[in-house]
Description:
Elements (H helix, E strand, L loop, with lengths): L10 H7 L6 H15 L4 H8 L3 H13 L20 H16 L4 E2 H12 L5 H10 L2 E8 L9 H4 L5 E2 L8 E7 L5 E6 L7 H12 L3 E3 L10 E4 L6 H5 L7 E4 L11 H4 L7 E2 L2 E2 L10 H5 L3 E2 L13 E4 L8 H14 L2 E4 L10 H9 L6 E3 L6 H13 L7 E6 L5 H13 L3 E6 L7 H11 L2 H5 L2 H10 L17
Parallel strand pairs: 1-3, 5-6, 5-7, 7-8, 9-12, 12-13, 14-15, 15-16
Antiparallel strand pairs: 2-4, 10-11
Helix pairs in contact: 1-2, 2-3, 2-4, 3-4, 6-7, 13-14
Amino acid sequence: MARQPSGRSVLKKAISQLKRAETAEELRQLQAVIFPLEHGFSLAQTATVLGVSPSWVNKIRNQFIQSGGKLTTKTRRGGRRREKLSPDEETSFLTPFLVAAQSGGELVVKDVKVALEERLGWEISLTTVYNLLHRHGWNKVVTGSVSSRDNIGNEEEKTADIRTEARGSSRNPVRFTWGYNPYAKQVNILNIDSKFPNYAMAKVEKYFTGKGFTINSDPNLTGKMPSFISVIFESNRDKAQRYEGIPDTIIGGSGWDIKSKLPAEIEAVRPRINLGYTSRGCNRSCPFCIVPQKEGKASPEADLFDIWDGTARRVTLLDNNILQLPAHFRLICTQAQKTGIVLDWNQGLDVRLVTDDVAKLLETTRIADIRFALDSVDLIPIFQEKLELLRRYKVRKAPLVYLLTGYDSSWEEDMVRVNFLVEQGCRPYVMLHENVKAEQQYKIMAEWVNQFWPVKSMGFEEFKRLRRDRPDKRNRGTTPLHIEVL
């Protein structure tokens, strides 16, 4: 007989604190106690749901039990633990040197070292001084052999606002020329075209914020500090070309280079902004889609706790085809069910992969909106079959269905898809391909369909007639607005 899990004495305390958990770590600790006792989960099953290792589950369970039902999770220690001066004291100490250098004088690292030793009352290393200078925006910009002091006034050195000199060994004396950078510890982030929260830029912001950087978003600061520029749509590529070649500037995004990636240390960051990817890639090869080329085959990326901030009740997921990973889809739904989170798969789910198991999870998980796509008339039979399956499991939400129009379909085929979805009680949403964006009849179709209510109450021809005859608001209804329809 399997050993019964411990902790029943603190179970009520864990349940009472569940809704008051403020961080993902606190939530995990409470669930590590509740799941084995209330739901019969094994240690391995609990670890799978929480997205951590079994040994970690055991550790945080025991912490809660041994503390008598008190949350014992601790945030990571940060900050400088052996600082000799506070940041304000450091600034005050360096101010006289800064003023002297700006007045035409020369600063020597050794002088700074001596002054700092007098201030502290003990000896320090040159490394301590260099670290101090770096923290306050002084950067080494030139290294060269010292033969005389006559070259101090040359044009190259005049570019630096502040000079700092340090002598090397007697065998190889070296001058280190330092320049004060007013933009030190700052980074510039530019989002060229996306109104939707940019997940890659959120990673950049979190990474640099954690290092104490100030975040800017100003095109005029490009080149003066590290800059990251994102272009989502290829039609906006020209807006980013003006920044190409500027030092310390990284341009990326699908509209610039679908293979571009952030530096590895930034790519690994988890912003936890209640928006992100739990999976990447897609195993299909739709001709209009760049996802397989950009991200490769479908693979797990993260779990819900890597995206959720621990307090929000809704999480938006950008997965391109999570249903190609059935076990991972179940994990995400299970985590959402246990925490009460509302999920929104913004990019839609692949209706062709809906099974009995998927339909049951969609019904038992809180979903903000169920979204599918119907990309051609050839998919209508399987779409109808899957819709009936969802209804057998009493999935109550009428799905929103994306319709890519004008790519490889005719006007008549696009209208067939619209009318089919309306008859099935779904909510079609027209997305115009570049091929037809300029065509007036497609613009009217999008207006007819995407408002939802007109497509359910009148046909296209009636909507087109009413639209043509509606009064011109600019002339207070005195002149009809006539629009030529191609």
